[in-house]
Each structure stands twice: as structure tokens, then as C-alpha cells.
Design goal:
With 173 residues, the chain is an all-alpha fold. It contains 9 helices and no strands.
């Protein structure tokens, strides 16, 4: 007697073959992205040791077919681990959209603050009140220099330096 999916609606048949294939191809694409990362970013990704070892092996291989085979093996090794093991790497690759949105919003807030600092002196006093450890004299001279650069169509060295200073103040807070 042939059984169909409708014979026992309570039975969990698991993912379909199509879904399993999609998942495997997604892991393969992710493995390919990891293999392209520079060593400095790989170190920050907190990947399992066996995955890092296979990525190193993959980077040493130059033959196209052997590289493709090794990439498949890397994906197989990655499927043995839970998804949580790769959260740091996904964040580095930008798959964590929420984190990326937060960082972008924070950068835009700092840029807006920099613009307000250049337009209005009261903003500087508010910044000093918020961060009393900031070097006031240095900040005032940077703002003055950025205004001169902007008015004279010069390269925005001080303008960029203000942003970096605001960024470090934001990270410290």
C-alpha cells in the first residue's frame, strides 16, 4: 500500500529535498564568502578551529576543480556546526542587517553633530557638557580649521578629524 503525506497529518516528514538543497547551497555560498575574507577579518569572526583550518587549506589551492571540491568540503564541515557558531562572521559580512542599520544610523548622527558644530557654537558647549573630558581647545581649533577649509575649498582634513574625534567619544561613552 502506498502512503502519502495526507495519510498521517501528525507525522513530521522534515524538510523537503528541495529545501535541503537550498540550505546546502546557502551554506556553500556563505563558505565562499568566508574564503574571500582577509585574515584580519577572519580572526575577528570567531570561527571554529576546524573551519579556519579548512579555509586555510582552500586558500592554498590554485586548481579550479580542486578548489571547488575543497569549497564543498568546507561547506560540509560548516554544516556540522550550529548556526550560532557563525553569527560573528555573518555580522562581518553584513548579513546582520539590524546591526548594520544601527551602525549606519550612529554614523549619520555623528555626521549631523559635526555639521551642527560647524554651524553653531552652542553645540560645542552642549558637547562639552555631555563629554567633560574632551579637549576643548583642540576641538575649537579643529572647528575653526574646518570652517577655513570649507570656505577656502581646501581638502577637509580637520573636517575628517572632527568626525574621528566624535567617533572615539561616542565609543567611549
Amino acid at each position: 500500500m502506498n502512503r502519502t503525506y495526507t495519510d498521517d497529518p501528525e507525522h513530521d516528514y522534515g524538510p523537503t529535498r528541495t529545501q535541503q538543497r537550498r540550505d546546502a547551497l546557502a551554506v556553500l555560498a556563505f563558505a565562499s564568502q568566508l574564503a574571500e575574507l582577509p585574515p584580519s577579518k577572519l580572526a575577528r569572526a570567531n570561527l571554529p578551529d576546524d573551519v579556519l583550518r579548512e579555509i586555510d587549506n582552500l586558500k592554498r589551492i590554485t586548481s579550479h576543480i580542486a578548489r571547488k571540491r575543497q569549497l564543498g568540503f568546507l561547506a560540509k564541515v560548516m554544516r556540522r556546526h550550529d548556526d550560532e557558531a557563525f553569527d560573528g562572521a555573518r555580522a562581518l559580512l553584513g548579513e546582520n542587517r539590524e546591526q548594520q542599520r544601527k551602525e549606519t544610523a550612529a554614523m549619520h548622527r555623528l555626521e549631523a553633530l559635526r555639521e551642527r558644530l560647524l554651524e553653531n557654537d552652542d553645540t560645542l558647549q552642549a558637547l562639552i557638557d555631555q563629554h567633560p573630558d574632551v579637549d576643548r581647545q583642540h576641538m575649537r581649533s579643529l572647528i575653526r580649521q574646518a570652517r577655513i577649509e570649507r570656505d577656502g575649498n581646501k581638502p577637509p582634513r580637520a573636517y575628517r578629524e572632527i568626525f574621528q574625534l566624535l567617533k572615539t567619544l561616542n565609543e567611549d561613552a
